[in-house]
Write a structure and sequence with these properties.
Elements (H helix, E strand, L loop, with lengths): L1 E16 L12 E18 L3 E3 L3 H15 L4 E8 L9 H16 L6 H7 L8 H7 L3 E4 L11 E5 L6 E7 L8 H9 L5 H21 L2 H23 L6 H12 L3 E5 L6 E5 L2 H9 L8 E6 L7 E7 L5
Parallel strand pairs: 3-4
Antiparallel strand pairs: 1-2, 1-11, 2-4, 2-5, 5-6, 7-9, 7-10, 8-9
Length: 321
């Protein structure tokens, strides 16, 4: 019997935090959505020795070793990475590759999925629950952060992203966003998050963004996103050098807005920026009409994803001649 599991997990946009804790009683809370067109895809099968082929080898080996030790799996594995979300650009690569490895190993060994505990075991989801929730199901996700009992951040809303709408991504091909120890240090050095700022963001999410999605009003949706992004960007500006982490991305986003795009912003620590359009044709027209992109940037048009990860389990009976 030859078995393999192939799993494909989508990148996600992080549209902003609802709050940033000032004490142990406060929750983060966040809003975001998975996207099509950028994903981590890997295949896991049994092998004589554990090997990783493709990118992110050290991280994948570490995750696999941790999971196997935790689950009591003694087998060795071949892990092949077909594609990977770019690291440290604001698209959730770390969480998605950890969950992909965990889910693939569990599926291969006929064990039930446990996204919440595996994420915690592998050090993911400490602030935002968007990546974990996007692994399970798509749409625009709002989580309320972790409760007093710990565990995964609580998802309080999940609204389908309109099928016709498109996202115009602006990628910086030269730089990465703040991550690792630098991210921890940034949170440590920033001033306490103002309660008034959290109130503004929560109001925008509840009374503007969420109804705009249901009503499919892209102008209202974009206005809410931009208001949230302005509040978040101003707060993180001392750590990242401005509302946006990348000046070339920022310049391109402003040109997209002038050409008719809605809701410009930055995903997580960036440098990836985004804007929204009502259709594929509108997105192409807007992207073509900005008179060129800033040096070092790349534009990609994608749709939102209203589904979670794809998992395919293959079992073949091999007959020897």
């Amino acid at each position: 019997m030859s078995e393999s599991v192939t799993i494909k997990v989508p990148a996600r946009l992080h549209l902003g935090f609802l709050d940033i804790p000032r004490s142990s009683r406060d929750r983060f809370g966040s809003v975001g959505l998975p996207i099509e067109g950028i994903a981590t895809e890997l295949t896991v099968s049994r092998a004589a020795e554990t090997q990783v082929h493709g990118g992110d080898q050290e991280r994948i080996l570490r995750h696999a070793a941790t999971l196997c030790a935790h689950l009591g799996i003694k087998a060795q594995h071949r892990i092949t990475v077909q594609s990977a979300i770019p690291s440290h650009v604001g698209l959730g690569s770390g969480t998605q590759i950890a969950l992909a490895v965990a889910a693939a190993l569990r599926t291969l060994h006929s064990l039930p999925l446990d996204v919440t505990h595996d994420a915690a075991l592998l050090g993911r989801g400490s602030r935002s629950g968007i990546g974990m929730a996007a692994f399970e199901e798509g749409g625009v996700i709002v989580d309320a952060g972790k409760g007093n009992g710990g565990g995964a951040p609580t998802v309080i809303s999940r609204i389908p992203f309109p099928e016709d709408w498109r996202i115009i991504l602006v990628l910086d091909t030269f730089t990465q966003g703040i991550h690792g120890e630098a991210e921890i240090e940034a949170f440590r050095n920033l001033a306490p998050f103002p309660v008034a700022t959290s109130a503004i963001i929560c109001r925008q999410v509840l009374l503007n963004m969420m109804p705009a999605l249901i009503e499919q009003d892209i102008a209202a949706f974009g206005s809410a996103v931009e208001a949230i992004q302005t509040e978040i960007g101003n707060y993180f500006a001392p750590a990242q050098g401005g509302i946006f982490a990348s000046r070339p991305v920022e310049a391109t986003l402003h040109r997209l807005a002038k050409a008719g795009a809605f809701g410009i912003g930055q995903s997580s620590w960036g440098p990836t920026g985004f804007a929204f359009a009502a259709s594929q044709a509108d997105a192409e027209r807007i992207a073509d009409g900005i008179g060129g992109r800033s040096p070092g940037t790349m534009i990609q048009i994608v749709s939102g994803r209203n589904a979670g990860a794809d998992i395919a389990h293959t079992a073949l009976n091999l007959v020897r001649a």
